[in-house]
Each structure stands twice: as structure tokens, then as C-alpha cells.
Amino acid sequence: MFECNKTRCVTIGGCHGGIPVPRRGKYMSGEAKEVAGGVSNPAPSQTESTQWFTNPAEGVITAFRYSSAYLAVIAMVQVLLVTAALSLETTLAPAVVGLVTFAVYVGDRIADADTDAATNPERTAFIKRYERVLQHAVSLSYGLAIALAVLGGPVALAITLLPGVFWILYASEWLPSVTSHFRRLKDVLLVNSFVVAFAWALTLTVLPLAFADAPFTPAAAVMFVYFFLGIFVNVEIPNVRDAAGDSEIGVETLPVVLGVHRTRHVLLGVDALTASVLVAAAVTGVLDAMFVGALLLGLAFSLTVTSLVGRTSKEELLTTAAESEYVVVALALVPFAL
Amino acid sequence: MAMYRPYMVPITPLTVVLFATIVIGVAATLTAWRARPEPGSLPLVAMLAGQSWWSTCLVLQVQAMTLQAKMLWVDVSWVGVVVIPVAWLAFALQYTGRDEYLQCRYLVLVSLVPVLTIVLALTGEYHDLFYRESRLLVQNGSLRIHRTVGPWFWVITGYTYLLGLFGGIPILSLLSSDARPFRGQSFALLLGTLAPWMSNVFFLLGFYDTSGLDPTPVAFSVSGVAYLAAVTRFRLFGASPSPTHRARRLVFTKMHDGAVVVDRHDTVVDMNEPATEVLGVSPSDALGSPATSVIPSYDAFPDEGALSTPLSIDSDRGVDRYDVSVVPIDDVHDRPLGRVISFHDVSDILRERQRLKVLNRVLRHNLRTEANLIAGYADLLADGDEAHESRLIKERTQRIIDVGDKGRMVVELFERDWSEVEPRDVATLLDSCVTDVAAEYPEARVVVGDAPTDASVSAVLKPVVLNLVENSVEHNSADAPWVEVSARVVEDTVEIRVVDNGDGIGDYERRVLSQGEESPLEHGSGLGLWLVTWGVDIADGSVTFENRQSCGSIATVRVPNVSVPAETHAR
Questions:
Q1: Average of pLDDT values for B146-154?
Q2: B59 CB near a chain A CB, below 8 Å?
Q3: Do B476 and B519 reside in the same domain of the chain?
Q4: Nearest residue on chain B to A104, judged by CA atoms?
Q5: Which chain B residues contact residue A91 at CB under 8 A?
Q6: Smaller CB count within 10 Å for chain B: N or C?
Q7: Given CB atoms, is B30 within the 8 Å cutoff of chain A?
Q8: Does B52 reach chain A within 8 Å, measured CB to CB?
Q9: Are A109 and A8 in contact (CB under 8 A)?
């Protein structure tokens, strides 16, 4: 669900939704680097950026896109999917996840504005122009998320705090600056993808349970695995795109170690594993067969996207497509809901 | 029975305010977090996080359905409660630049009681130091916990208030700061701190009935808003007073002059590093000793002001000389506390002055005597075949004498204390200069134009104007040379113009003067214009030179009109 770009913002949840985590570790100089023959584009000036808003509707769409508000909506869709899959009552969980996603992801965009300038100049210009407003929005939305989570009880609160805690462990420069014994998890090969996938899958699955005061059932476990594997794939997709750049600066990622071709196969294998888990859940009756069918439809979409990794130059479109997997699932479920 | 009722908290004014408190508290925490590493940001994060945690625990406690669960949330709320005063103190010290007290060992020391409090709170079932009795009550249809406090509760309460007081003192001092942002910041910070504390005081004193519920977290909503205002409106992390405290100390310790602080009993209580070198003592020997045993001729020092003559102190380099000044230190009621004695090394200045005196004597006496002798010998040749050469020798000798005279004037210019010389009426000064030059150069027409009769200038202008007029006549090859001197009052200055029909001043000469210094390769042709430049500088004025379109030059001098009251100048 979360958009990733060459100058490195992968998120907890990578392109699959979750807590965004800057990938500046690979370009820690703070300067935008050219990657794989890419050309650094300066961020458009404010005068240029104001040209986006020729009418109010266009302004709303631009803000929705560049502020990452759309990612918050996708995150809410994911929580609603869990709610439906586990037959939970409708709670405040989707709102909490949406607010947290918005807060953490916009915060990440602000922090990475300089390094993103080369590959995403329009978004960077938007972020820089409205930085002050966005910072207040980040603070208020996370504050609101925490306050709402408190109403869900201690477990809901703990899960809501998780993204912030993981962000500090994963990407913040603060802990390494305090103690030399601590190494950021994002700098550790493969650990970053697993941590991102785990934290995000846990948040998406457990928060609606906590709000509904429901137990962790086998169906919840299946949804956790489904999100975990899906997020892992979507974290690695931008790594495939960035393989050349990562290799240049000595960062080891799956595509750097295995190569783009083999990585694509591995990711397709993970998608296949996800499909197996879902089919097994449907066969054993852990999840409703109709629901699994919708998930498999989304997975098929994901497989198509994954198969195009490294084979297309339209990387932004590919990233957005990967983020849209859960929207496909939701749309597939709409006729049944009606 | 379920332990919690997720999102089943009854909507009451209390829960609404607590909800707002958490939103504002977390938002303020994140705002402060982003301000890192600004001084005070991390302690403020800790304090706001502590407040948010306390509020959160109160909501969870209200939600809890069993005595055990309610007790748990009361107990764990102490983690946030005890963080607040420690963080507040740390914030106050760091924000006001007193971070020397924020060393790890001090923080550990200050945190001992809070840590012990948490331990006692979490082990409450094994003792009754914190709470003696806990029971559930049903009030207005809601379950409430009622706990009878033990002795440690009052210990931590007193400790919390003590740290709050210590933290408030340095912040309080900023309320009277000259800087508006600091006044606003300190007001907002104190408001944000006092609101919950006053709320807690009223609760402890039983001023209002809260059914046993500590309402302090409710007041955190005020704190959050106040802290946010301090950050956003009063730029808490944009304009920080933290360097001020250290800067003042730094000025004392790192200043070039020696400085010694004595108390009202004339005991040395502080001194900076240069002072130890000036006086040749170590701080350990000097501090606490009578000033008379540390500072030579201490008894001769005035109570206030400067010592009339430089103080001589023997050193490895010989005898060093110091200007001594004494500044009294008074308390807010103007009662004397002590004095600061500063030692300004004037050894080099006095040596320079001595050299100038010797140079003055050489120029005034030796050079002129020798030149007169040469001119006398030249006279002996005047009647012979070398009459032409004799005339040339006398002309050149006169030039040497003139240069010597100029040099002597320059020496005098720097030697005299012009501030003590009576100012001169402008019209009289111009007349005097013109008369002198006209007498010396009768072939030139030297006149005074308009001149104000009610304006005065520094006496140093006499040699300045004299040289300008002389220069105008000397460097004038016109058939009928003339010079006109005039003056006028322009606001609080006097503008003196010297206009001539002479040869003008070359660009090269003007460039050297504007640079303010010469080099062996780039220098002026004499001393006259330098004397003018330096003299105007002493008079706190300015001078400009320009050539007239036809021929000649215009020199314009602007100096303060000293007949105007001083406050007008300041304006």
C-alpha cells in the first residue's frame, strides 16, 4: 500500500500498507543520489507548485495524493477486511489505523523531503510548501489515534503505540546516537523486511480484535500470515527497482544478493505460498470460502504486478498498483456485501 | 467478569476532557520531539509523555471493571507521575542554560526517590507504605476505586512539589526578561505547570468532591495547550535563553582583562584566568584570601571608578602597567555585596606614548636645529657662484622643517586628550586658521565665507582646518591662488568646506587615504592629509575630498556640533 521511491522510503508495510520507515540508511549523506542512471530533478519552485491548484478539486486531489492521505484510506480498507473476515463488530479500529498511517507516513515524507527531491520532485515541493501545516497534522492525528485507542483498552493502546516504537527502533537516528551498542534494524539485511512485515501485519490484525475484545482465533492467524507475506513482497518490490543504486553504495538487499531475476522468482514463490495458506484456510473452514475467493483475486492481481517487476520502466505505476491490491479485494467483496 | 469495557467509557465531561488531554498531550509530545536537539526538548518530551501516560491510565482505570484492574492502573500511572517533576527540573535547567547540573550522576540522584516510588507502587500488595486500603465504591452508577494513602504517598508528593519549585525558580526569573519571547515562553510554561499542580493541591486539601478521583490529569489539558503555545506562538525552541547564563560566565572567564571579585569584606571570592597571570597567583591561593595580600596597592583603590594612575606590577617581563577600574556590585535593594576590580594592560600603550614623546622631541628640537644650521651654511654660499644652489638648499631645508613641524603636530594630535580641551567656536576657529595661513602666504587670497556663530566643534579641528587650508595654498600653481573656508550647521553636525583653485587631489592620494593605511609601495605624498584624516577621526567625524569641475578641490569635514546637548547626538 505504501509508495516507495528511489530515494528511499520504504515503510513498515512497505508498499503494502503500514508504518512508513525512511530508507535513508542507504543514502545517509542526506543528498539525493542518482540511482541506476536516473537523473536528479530539482524540486519545482513554489511558483511552479502553486500551478497545481488551478481549481479546488484539483487541490484536494493533489493534497490527497501527496500528503499520503490515500494510504491512510487503503489502511482503513485493510482493517475493514480483517473485521469482515473475522466477523467482528464495527469498531474505531479502522479510524485509529488510518490516523496512525497518515501520521507516520506524512512524518516520514517530511523527514525524507530532501532525499526524495531527486526522484519525486512534485511531492517534495508539496511537502516542503505545507511542511508546517503537515507537521501539526501529524501531531494531531497521532494524538487522536492514541486517544481513540485508549477507548479500546490497554491492548489497543499498545498496538497503536507499536508503529511509533518500531519507527524508533527501525529507522530513528536517536538510539544509535545515544548508545553505540544499538544498530538500526533497517541497516540489517532482511531483518528490515521482516520487521516491517511483522509490525504492520500485527497492527492490522490485532487492533480490530482488541477493540472488539475478541480472542485471537485461527482465522486471525491466517489473516496475520496473509498480511505478513503480502507486506514482505511489497517491501522487496522497491528493492528490486533500487538494486543498482543499493549495490553502488554497498547496501545488501535481496535483489542485490540474488539478482533481479531470482528475486522476482522468490517473490512469486511467496505469493504462491500465500495462496496455499488461503486455500488451506478455505478448505478447513477457517475462513469463509467466498471471502478467500476475494483475497485470491487480489492475490492474482498482486502476482501480475510482481511478475512485471524489473520488466517495466513505469515504476511509480507499478508501486501504486501493488498498493491497490487490497482495494481490488474490497471491490470484489462489494457485490456480496450488497 | 471482563476486566475492561472497550470503548464503553461513559461520555461525561470528565472523559471528554481526558480525551482532549490525551490528544493535546501526545500532539505536544510529538511537537517537542521534532525540536530535538534544541535545549530542553527531550526533557519536555519526557514531561509531556508522563502527563499523557497519567491521563491514559486514568481513562483505563475508569474503564476497568474490577478492583484488581483499577488498582493496577493506579499503580502503573505512577510511572508517568514521577517522571513529570524530574523532567520538569531537567527541562528548566537545560532551557535556562544551567545544564552543568544535568550530569548523569545528578540525574540518578534526583531519580532515586521516583524509582523507589515506582517499585513501592508496583509491589503494593506486599506492604502498606503506599496504600493502606483499597476498595470499590459505586457512585452515580459508576464503579470507583477508593484508596487510603500510606506514608510514602506523602513523601513522593512532597518530593514532587519540591522539584517543581526548584524547576520553577529559573523559569520564573525569565518573566522579567527584556526579551518578549522569553517572557511569553516562561509565562506559558509556568501556567502549564501550575495548572495541574494547583489542581492537585486543591484535590489533596479536599476543596472539591471528585469521588476520590485525582483530577490532576484533567488540568493537563491546560498544560498541553500552554506548552503548545510556548512552542508555536512564543517559539520555545526557536528563541532560547539557554546560552545567556553561560555567556555571562564566559565573558568573565574569557575576557582579555584580568578581573577579580571581592566581597564586602575585601576577600577575594572569584577571579578569571587573566587575573591569575596579572597578579601571579593561583586561584587556590588567592580565593578566600584578603585582597590586600593578593592585589598590590589595594588600599589605594577607589571605592568606585578608575585608579588615577596606572598600577605597576612586577612580572617576568619586567614591570607591567595596568589601568585599574572598580565596579561595585549591589543587591536589588542597592545594598553593597562586593566589587569587581578589572586590570587593563596599558604597558604597550604607555611604551608607545614614551616613544612618541621622544619622537616629538626629535622633531621639535633636533631636526629643526640641524635644519637651521644647514640653512645658515647655505647663506654663506649665497653671495658666491653657488647662489642658485644655495637657494635650492634653503628651499629643501625649509621643506624638511615643514615635514618636521607636521610630524610634531601629528604627535601632539595623539598625545593630547582632546576631550578635556574646551570646544572652539566655529567662526573664531576658521578666522584663526585663515589669519595664520594668510600671514604665511601673502600672495594667496585666503578668505572665510559663511560661518555660524552659534556652533562649536572639538578643538582638534584647529590643526585639521589649518592643514587643509595650508595644503590648498601649497599645492596651488594658479596665477592668482585663492582658498575659501566656510561652515554651516546640518542637523546636529557642523559641515566645514575648504574650496580652492589649486591643483586638486589625485585619485591615488585619495585612495590611500580611504584605505586608512599605507604600504611601502602605496603611500601618500606627505603628512598633511593624514593629519586631517586622523584629526577628524578623533573628533568623531568624517572627511571627503573631491575635485572641482574646473580646477581645484573641495574638502568637506563633518563633525558633531558640540554645542548641541548630548542627548540630541544620541538621537
A1: 85
A2: yes
A3: yes
A4: B30
A5: 6-7
A6: N
A7: yes
A8: yes
A9: no
Q: Which residues of B touch A157 (CB under 8 A)?
A: 56, 60
Q: Which residues contact A285 (CB under 8 A, 6 or more apart)?
A: none
Nearest-CA distance A231 → chain B (Å): 27
Q: Which of B9, B22, B33, B48 to mutate to test the interface with A (most CBs of A within 10 A)?
A: B22
Q: For residue B489, list its beta bridge partners.
A: B494
The CATH code of the domain that includes B325 is 3.30.450.20
One domain, residues B286 and B433:
no
Q: What is the largest CA-CA distance in chain B?
A: 140
Q: Which chain B residue's Cα is nearest to A153?
A: B6
Question: Which domain-ending residue is among B316, B345, B374?
Answer: B345
A150 touches chain B (CB under 8 A): yes
- What DSSP letter does each residue of B16-76 carry, written as one string? HHHHHHHHHHHHHHHHHHHTTTSTTHHHHHHHHHHHHHHHHHHHHHHH--SHHHHHHHHHH
> Residues of A numbered 167-196 whose beta carbons fall under 8 angstroms of chain B's beta carbons: which are they?
174
Q: Is A157 on the interface with B (CB under 8 A)?
A: yes
Contact between chains at B27 and A142 (C-beta distance less than 8 A): yes
Residue A50 pLDDT > 50: no
B542 Rama class: left (phi>0) / alpha (psi -120 to 50) / beta: beta
Q: How far apart are CA B314 and CA B309, in angstroms?
A: 16
Q: Are residues B265 and B185 in the same domain?
A: no
Say if residue B92 is in the same domain as residue B141: yes
Largest Cα–Cα separation, chain A: 60
Per the CB < 8 A criterion, the answer to whether A77 and A330 are in contact is yes
**C-alpha dihedral over B133, B137, B143, B147, to 10 degrees?**
-20
The label of the residue with cell 578635556 reads: B420
Q: What is the chain A residue with the closest CA to B30?
A: A139
The pLDDT of residue B33 is 84
**Residue among A187, A184, A229, A185 at smallest CA distance from A204:** A229
Residues B402 and B321 grouped into a single domain: no
- Alpha-carbon distance B105 to B93, whole Å? 15
In a domain, residue B249? The reply is no
Is B480 exposed, middle or buried (CB count within 10 Å of its CB: 0-12, 13-18, 19+)? exposed
B60 contacts A146? CB cut-off 8 A: no
| Relative orientation angle of helices A121-129 and A131-151, to the nearest 10 degrees | 80
Q: Residues for chain A: how many in total? A: 338
Q: Which chain B residue has its CA at the smallest distance from A141's CA?
A: B27
Strand partners, B500: B483
Whether B9 sits inside 8 A of A92 (CB atoms) is no
Residue after which a domain boundary falls, among B345, B365, B388: B345
| Chain B CB contacts of A210 below 8 Å | 6
pLDDT top residue among B490 and B204: B490
Q: Is residue A191 classed as helix, strand or coil in its secondary structure?
A: helix
* Residue with the three cell numbers 596665477: B479
Nearest CA in chain A to B7: A151
Alpha carbons A53 and A59: distance in angstroms, whole number: 5
Whether A143 contacts chain B with CB within 8 A: yes
Grouping H, G, I as helix, E, B as strand and the rest as coil, residue B250 is helix
Domain count, chain B: 4
Question: Which residue of B12, B14, B23, B36 to mutate against A (max A Cβ within 10 Å)?
Answer: B23
- Has residue B350 got a pLDDT over 60? yes
pLDDT, one tens digit per residue, over A244-279 is 766 766 666 788 888 888 888 888 899 899 999 999
Among partner residues B9, B28, B30, which is closest to A138 by beta-carbon distance? B30
In which domain, by residue range, is B44 found? 13-244
**Same-domain status, B364 and B330:** no
pLDDT for B494-541, tens place per residue?
Answer: 999 999 888 777 776 666 666 666 555 555 566 777 888 888 888 888
